[in-house]
Specification:
alpha/beta, four-stranded parallel β-sheet, two-stranded antiparallel sheet, globular, binds iron/sulfur cluster
């Protein structure tokens, strides 16, 4: 059976930096959950972060790929370098996805871990920019197709679930 990795917060788990979830209610998710297809996972919890925690962003003008290559950092709002935990969480997510046989992932957009269409500027000013989070980048580099929470119907149309 094809399985789908999904950001834990989209399943309502209160794991975000601010201590809440980001529940998405969708008929496909309900069906996939009942079928046991969904593997809920939070990269930042896997990377050792607490709830709540300070918000963190990829440095201005840098990409997730830069962070993974050691050329840029992820900093929290106090300026602490939290890159190592984010990278560890990304690797743990890939390991979990591979073990579960996930070829698709539904990830929370905007996150420095899970973002796929956008991340924030790195200046904690609420400004968006195009780009991936580090977990999304690692999964995509390893052949796992990434979708955001607004693309669940598109994913359903693409899947030929077995
Ligand atoms: Fe949600 Fe991903 Fe952030 Fe965890 S790391 S709280 S799953 S967006």
């Amino acid at each position: 059976m094809d399985r789908i990795l999904i950001s834990s917060c989209l399943m309502g788990q209160p794991v975000r930096y601010d201590g809440v979830g980001k529940l998405v209610v969708h008929s496909h998710l309900t069906a996939w959950k009942a079928e046991g297809r969904l593997i809920a996972f939070c990269p930042e919890i896997a990377g050792g972060f607490a709830v709540p925690r300070l918000p963190a962003e990829i440095e201005p003008n840098a990409t997730a790929q830069d962070v993974l290559a050691g050329k840029a950092r992820i900093l929290d709002s106090d300026g602490t370098d939290v890159s190592a935990g984010f990278i560890a969480g990304a690797k743990a997510t890939l390991s979990t996805a591979k073990k579960a046989g996930c070829s698709h992932a539904i990830l929370t957009d905007g996150s420095p871990s899970c973002g796929s269409g956008f991340v924030y500027s790195g200046r904690f000013d609420g400004v968006r920019r195009s780009g991936l989070g580090v977990t999304a980048a690692v999964l995509a580099q390893n052949g796992i197709r990434i979708w955001n929470q607004g693309e669940i119907s598109a994913l359903a149309n693409t899947l030929s679930l077995k």
